[in-house]
Design brief:
four-stranded mixed beta sheet, binds pyridoxal-5'-phosphate, 2 domains, alpha/beta, Aspartate Aminotransferase, domain 2, Aspartate Aminotransferase, domain 1, seven-stranded mixed beta sheet
């Protein structure tokens, strides 16, 4: 691999110290670069499509804090809204007008969210939504799909082995087996398996990422989401769309618009709706959400829920994310994906790349990828080389072969074209 000058000494020094203070040196596991090896860099700042590490290296950022930054880093409109809001106080624990504004903006774009409850993380949103589904149906079991991530609440830290379905075995020590066995898991896109389970086990909810982004970018097969809706209607399970990642990314109106009108009973949002501050939400019809305390008996609460700073960040972000802006980001994401396909074809690398809106991904694999098992066929060793070669050339891809990528309004055509040149060189280096 051709060496390019890329000093990381300050990052390495800080990470050595961080390992004394944080498990693995990080505050969320993926940041430790376990998926690609090597030492993570420590970030100093961001601006538009770029981030700079503490050694002064600049990167085109295709991770964007794992999705929230749909306008890019430090967008002036969001910074101004935050400064103005912060000057009046950062938290009250009392109703504020900003939370109502954000709920109304969300409902205007996602009319099925007649009511929401704001929380502070996607984990909380998914955990709480499942509590509502369990309460509403009087059932305990839930169904999820292998490779879908719904945060780290106990009920979701379950992975099935291969095969149609197995009773859930906890994926992590510390999750009680008695709870994990209430979580059933099947392969994404396997509607027959879903039907079989839902007809034999009364399910509270079928939980799905409408497009998987947490094991690479895996779209649903045509009819899959509509099929889940039909199974839920037939069996009385609630359909839960976890749109923490896909919301305001895959289509202007989210998964309902993307799927041509499949309506879930419960939806989780996060990431984009906070514009880089800690916010998430769960919601649905008024009838469903009236079960949440204090309107109903399903308890859920949060000291910082509806925090004014976070609400202001989300509002300023969604105000800027108009349909034309969404369409422009989508077009640039298409340009990126087309460029990646061209590079791979010219260099003889098997590559499957796709996008929906501003969420994208690629597998170094030529077969179809319909499930996590398919995704695992991709060439992870080559991905690692591409990742590091790209990083040395100023492009930051997600540090795992099994994560989606993101673009922002700041990723204009010149930024994408420059990134593609660098990625082309990175592929050349990785293949050398
Ligand atoms: C990121 C994510 C979560 C978890 O959100 P946190 O804010 O990290 O807790 C849940 N579901 C999906 C689909 C996600 O992408």
């Amino acid at each position: 691999m051709t060496a390019v000058p890329h000093d990381t000494s300050r990052s390495q020094e800080l990470m050595a110290r961080a390992r004394q203070r944080f498990p693995g040196g990080v505050n969320s596991p993926v940041r430790a670069f376990g998926g690609v090896g090597g030492e993570p860099f420590v970030v100093a700042r961001g601006d538009g499509p770029y981030i700079w590490d503490v050694d002064g290296n600049r990167y085109v950022d295709f991770v964007l804090s794992w999705g929230p930054l749909v306008l890019g880093h430090a967008p002036p409109a969001v910074l101004a809204a935050l400064a103005e809001t912060a000057a009046r106080g950062t938290s009250f624990g009392i109703p504020c007008a900003l939370e109502l504004d954000l709920a109304e903006v969300i409902a205007a774009r996602m009319p099925h969210l007649e009511m929401v409850r704001f929380v502070s993380s996607g984990t909380e949103a998914a955990m709480s939504a499942v509590r509502v589904a369990r309460a509403a149906t009087g059932r305990d079991h839930i169904l999820k799909f292998e490779g879908c991530y719904h945060g780290h609440a106990d009920s979701f830290l379950v992975k099935a082995g291969s095969g149609v379905a197995t009773l859930g075995l906890p994926n992590s020590p510390g999750v009680p087996a008695a709870l994990a066995e209430k979580t059933l898991t099947v392969a994404f896109n396997d509607l027959d398996a879903v039907r079989t389970i839902a007809r034999t086990t009364p399910l509270a909810a079928i939980c799905v990422e409408p497009i998987i982004g947490n094991s690479g970018f895996i779209p649903p097969a045509p009819g899959f989401l509509a099929g889940l809706r039909a199974v839920c209607d037939e069996t009385g399970a609630m359909l839960l769309f976890d749109e923490v990642m896909t919301g305001f990314r895959i289509a202007f109106g989210g998964a309902v618009e993307y799927s041509g009108g499949v309506r879930p009973d419960l939806t989780c949002l996060g990431k984009v709706i906070g514009g880089g501050l800690p916010v998430a939400a769960y919601g649905g019809s008024r009838a469903v959400m009236q079960q949440v305390a204090p309107a109903g008996r399903v308890y859920q609460a949060g000291t910082l829920s509806g925090n004014p700073l976070a609400m202001a960040g989300g509002l300023a972000t969604l105000a800027a994310l108009t349909r034309p802006v969404h369409d422009a980001i989508t077009a640039q994401t298409g340009r990126l994906v087309a460029g990646l396909r061209e590079i791979a074809a010219r260099r003889g690398v098997p590559l499957l790349a796709d996008h929906a809106g501003s969420m994208w991904g690629f597998f170094l694999h030529d077969g179809p990828v319909r499930s996590f098992d398919d995704a695992k066929q991709s060439d992870v060793a080559l991905f690692r080389k591409v990742f590091h070669a790209a990083r040395e050339r100023g492009v930051y891809l997600a540090p795992s072969a099994f994560e989606a990528g993101f673009t922002s309004a700041a990723h204009t055509a010149p930024v994408i074209d420059d990134a593609l040149d660098r990625l082309d060189q990175a592929f050349a280096a990785a293949l050398a």
